Amino acid sequence: MTSARSLVAVLLVLGFCPPSWTQEAESSKGFDEIVSPQLRSLQVALSAGSHDAADEFWIKVALRGTPLIEEIAGDTESLFVTFLWRNTETLAGVFLLSGLTNWDRTSLTRLSDTDVWYLTFRVRTDARFTYSMAELRGSIDDLQWQVDPGNPAVVDWPERESLVELPRARPQPWITPRPKVPSGTLTQHRLSSSILQNERNISVYTPPGYNRRSAAYPVVVFFDGDIYLNFIPTPTILDNLIAEKLIPPTIAVFVEHPTRMARTRELGCHPPFNEFLISELLPWMRQNYDVTQDPRRMVATGLSRGGLAAAFLALQHPETFGNVLSQSGSFWYEPRWEHGQAQLWHADNDTAGYGWLLQRYVATPLQAIRFYLDVGRFEQESWQANRHMRDILMAKGYSVAYQEFSGGHSSINWRGTISDGLIALLRVDER
Question: Which top CATH class is 185-430?
Answer without folding.
Answer: alpha beta
